[in-house]
Amino acid sequence: MSFVLPFTAQDIRRAVQPAFMLGVKRVQERPKPRASGLSGRARNQASTLSGTSPSDTHEERDYSAFTQEQGRKAEDITVDALKFLRAEDDGVFVGWRERGLPDDFFVTGHMDGVFWKLEMDVCPACDGSGEDYTDMDPDTETECPECTGTGEVGRAIPAFEENGEPIMVGFEHKHLGTWAYTRYCIWGDNIEEANFDHLIQGALYCEARNLDYHVWVITSQDARAMNTAIERNRDAKDPKVRYANNAWVDPKLMVFVVDMRPWRKLLTPHLRARAEALSRWKVDDGNPANVKPEYDPDGLNEYGDINYPCSWCEYRTVCKEDGDSGIAIPCLPNQENR
User: Fold this and answer.
1) Among 15-24, 93-102, 236-245, 277-286, which stretch is predicted with the lowest mean pLDDT?
2) Which of 135, 146, 190, 283 is 20 to 30 A removed from 43 (C-alpha atoms)?
């Protein structure tokens, strides 16, 4: 009898999510919404806030979990590349990686990082000698444990300046498929148009940590497919759909810098109102059926298919059963109640 592998490709895809605890994290009960989901549909957020198990399963979730872990690895590669790029220049690096938002902030979440650089100074423990005589014979030299014998210690300071003043700059990595990546090819640093959800997430991180700018590093899940799409787009006759000649376009990696101070001022009141309304519901009620849905779960697009995001929602069946009544959660700009 010939050898038969005891698992399939589908088995591996399905194992990714529990292996990395993605499913547990996604539906874990918590007191307030997450930064990465605040722009999403309200009843879906209520379901995850309450720890409700999904009523629907989607085969695409297997691929989503797998791609999510690919994105984490791509982020690590990007951070290491930045470290290598700047190490011999001014020591800029990405710190505060995966640091949680302050406990008293109105959403939870973990930002990808903040740009810092090391400022070196004389080690106060050994006064720059690099030696340690603590509780030892003064004639016996040993390495200072604070500076490991270098005589210097470093402290992290903001990596960049604007008009001679230090500024705080956040770091965000996104690993995107061809559709989402193409939107960045088209819109560039106009993040509102490229991906409104990303803008909301960035605004929340910047407000929570008082950041001035945010840097988005966008990597492609399929650079070969993007390269083909870009080359074909060069021949587009309609200039309105031609993006291939935009200066920032690259099939593998793009970087965008956005001044977030105007966005923080504009969006924070709306973000706070939406988040606090969900948090109040969690305390006062906690039943997702009592949150008004913002989309029609039976709505169809021009092709006769269920509209996104309901087509992707793992709570669609129970949402339909619960009806369209409930309290309305304040919307964000560019977000409609439907």
Assistant:
1) 15-24
2) 190
Question: Model confidence over 58-73: pLDDT tens digits?
Answer: 555 556 777 888 899 9
Running DSSP on this structure, what letter comes out for residue 83?
H
What is the C-alpha separation between 40 and 37, in angstroms, rounded? Answer: 5
The answer to whether residue 144 sits within a structural domain is no
The three-class DSSP label of residue 166 is: strand
Instruction: Supply 260's token pair.
Output: 């977030």
Q: Helix, strand, coil % (nearest 5) of the chain?
A: 40, 20, 45
Packing angle, helices 9-19 and 60-87, rounded to 10: 60
Of 91, 111, 87, the residue nearest 99 (C-alpha): 111
Q: How many domains does the chain have?
A: 1
What is the C-alpha to C-alpha distance for residues 258 and 301, in angstroms, rounded to an integer? Answer: 33
Q: Give the separation between CA 52 and CA 62, rounded to whole angstroms.
A: 19
β partners of residue 314? none
Q: Could you tell me if residue 316 is inside a domain? A: yes
Residue 232's Cβ-side half-sphere holds a number of Cα atoms within 13 Å equal to 7
pLDDT at position 232 over 70: yes
Give the residue carrying structure tokens 């000649």.
245
CA distance 275 to 266: 16
Residue 52 within any structural domain of the chain:
yes
Total number of residues shown for the chain: 338
CATH of the domain at 217: 3.90.320
| 286 assigned to some structural domain | yes
Look up the pTM and report it. Answer: 0.84
Tens of pLDDT along 165-218?
Answer: 999 999 999 999 999 999 999 999 999 999 999 999 999 999 999 999 999 999
Domain extent, residue 276, equals 12-115+163-338
* Rounded Cα distance, 145 and 132, in Å: 7
Q: Check if the beta carbon of residue 266 is closer than 8 Å to that of residue 212.
A: no
* Residue range 302-316, pLDDT digits in tens: 888 888 888 888 888
